[in-house]
Amino acid sequence: MPDKTVRVASGQGFWGDWQEAPKLQVRRGPIDYVMLDYLAEITMSILEKQRERDPRAGYARDFVDLVIDLAPDLVARGVRVVSNAGGVNPESCRDLLVERLADVETQRPVRIAIVRGDDLMARLDDLLAAGHELRNMETGEPLEAVRERVTAANAYMGAGPILRALRQAADVVVTGRSTDTALTYAPLIHEFGWAPDDWDRIAAGVVAGHINECGAQASGGNTLFRWREVDLIEPGYPIIEASADGAFVVTKHPSLGGRVNWASVTEQLVYEMGDPTEYITPDCVADFSTIRLEDLGADRVRVTGVRGRPRPGSLKVSIAYRAGYKATGSLTYAYPDAYEKAALADRVLRGRLERLGLRFEEIRTEYVGAGACHGPLAGPPDPELPEVGLLISVRGESRADVERFTRELAPLILAGPPTVTGFAAGRPKIHEVMAYWPALIDRAVVEEVVEVEVTEA
Q: What integer is the mean pLDDT of 376-396?
């Protein structure tokens, strides 16, 4: 009897990713699970602001539309969904799913599980009083310094609650702030029965999850290697074909575009990489320096050799806090002397802001088309550039000062350098700045809760 293979497909790499990808993953070939990653640090802040305006909001609403579309296929094909689309409000996400699934015909009822417990906001003052300082991992500053401005605090949970949901036969698992990689390795632990201290196999699952977490970035999207040759009209997102010993193959559906080879997989492996020997997750520490890749051809790359170490005693906490306001405006200057005109406009604008006595923590200028993406590496701009975009942003504590800045850009059209265009969008919009505060907390104080609900057929 052949060894068991479990296929975990990637369907979303971020909130706003291609909605067709998970549909193609489910409908174009055999898979067992589809993982959908919606969350980043800034995403949690956005979702929290949505919940402030509407207590029923705070999750990825397009996830609900996706599940409703796919529900008959998921049940018929036996595909299970694991996603962190619950954001800061998995309960409301589940409630809307249950409501809308009542009108969808499926072969049997759909079992939906939600994972709660990552949201520490209601417990934050008690945790601080109990001695959990939640110091900033980068500066060492205690959270008390910004406590009054904190809007969200979410612990990164691992495989534990997802496993409990899968063991209760959930078809769709909706978490809040789960670590991205757990959306892939939790199903592998469940299917293969890996022990919680089988560090090497769990580390292999972490590597598989890291490859899956950014969607098509591992299967030919956003690649530098021979990028002209990749068909991205209908790209195949990555699929992990895993074995019980921890080895796995990265592939994609043959009928779809994209490309899986050593380059695409390697580019994703080094994404957001710090110390490659210490990739820390809630369930183990994976050593990426032990990874061995074998390009098998035909869009198949085999991954072996991964080693792991015991899990940490702490969990990472993603904290968001209010840090003032910002606005960005732009103008475009045309040939001749496009860059020189844009630079003069910048000097004029800064001089006017100073004359008004406006105070900002930062004023940032970029010259799009004159090397803005490469900074000092770009060298001097080409004097013959046909056009240059002046992009100028301000950030400060005073909303009034930021608002006054938004009024100062339009006057440059007549009271500034010549040949300007590109102000059709009007006055720049003001946005509240949500800053990121990474911290650690004793994992024992994070209370994981799993709720499973069966929809009506």
A: 92
